[in-house]
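S.,

Sequence below, as promised.
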Amino acid sequence: MSFDTLVESLRGSAIGRIYRAHLRQFALGRWVARRIVHGIRSYYLAVLRFQARLPPLRPLPFIRLGKAVAYRDETMLLRPPETVQGAPTRWFPHPPTPATASPAPYEFPAITAVTLRDATAHGGCNFITVGDMMIHHDLYDFLRDATTEELHARCIIHPFRKTIHWSLRETALAPLPAAAVFLDGCAANYAHWMTEVLPRIAIFCATTAEPTIPLLVNDGLHANLRASLALVAGDHPVITVPLGQSVAVGRLVVVSPTGYISFGHRRHSIKPVEQGIFSPYALNLMRSRLMERAAPPAGSDYPKRFYVKRNSGGRMLTNAAAIEAALVAQGFAVVEPEKLSFSEQMHHFAQAETIVAATGAACVNLLFCRPGARLVVLMAQCAHMPYDYWYNMAAAVGVRVDYVLGNKVRYLHDDFRVRLEDVLDSVAQVQ
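The prediction came back faster than expected:
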């Protein structure tokens, strides 16, 4: 039984149901659950060291630049580098440090498509096996970035040695003559899907001369993610690859990143927290494809100003009820994205002028906002907080982001609160 299978079985057990119904809302309950999962993970990682191979890790440029030309068929430039500069942001009550007051412009690198010969793609993972190597995309920095594959006890990465303990417990699917790979360890997360996976699919489908080439994507995606995929992929066939399975491909097309933020910050790393970078071209191409293929329902009427209500069990805004009541009194509607279809979420944000939301995956819907719309993000103060994440994303699509900062917390996903007067000040200044 794999780590993920065991954790899922615990979630479906009586203990898991009791936790979700009665304990998850409390910080202590979530801490205990994390410690239990951490203990299980430690056991699986210990076993992995004795039941895995140890291939070298190599970035995609290692092949793209000709150092492993034996495995490369061709390289195609899809988009040259882009410079991204957003509007000035405002902080309430003040920025956490002077350095974050005015986020700097950044350059997003060129987007390319590399065709590999005789490669193997792995379910739920964007590492690719080629020969005796495992290939990863350009933007990983393993001295800084922790990966979801490590969290799920699927591998052990040795950053300084540039090697990886990789599990051999995989089932091989039927080989394919050709495919394009969009498997990703973070694809199940809405924000990662909308900025790192779906834009790559959009740019590939817009530029490929082979409309029948299948797309390899994660198995078990949420219905809203599948809906977005259907809109972007069009007539391209889609093959889902489950966790623990792999597929060998004669000609495998790999599209370089269109956006990236690390899944986590590696412990004891001295490098600064990664803030996220995004391709304006890829995000706007994805947005235009989605908007033109998913017309709003006839007679629909969406609010111009609304507050995003979160119902998840982690990183709770403890005074959310008071903030919601105050904003409703000022004419704001309340929107719960978790209860909406993908199309409904898209059109709610597309019609919005001012949005207030606690930081979370729902904020990624800013991608559908019209240029000039404003998003007020409520977040805690934390040493490892990627403060510029929403700003960098919004800058790529012409949306303005302001921040309301709350109390200091130790961990990114701790509960927090913000001052009501700061929220009302931010709203008053963005009207």
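The chain has a mean pLDDT of 87.

Coffee later?
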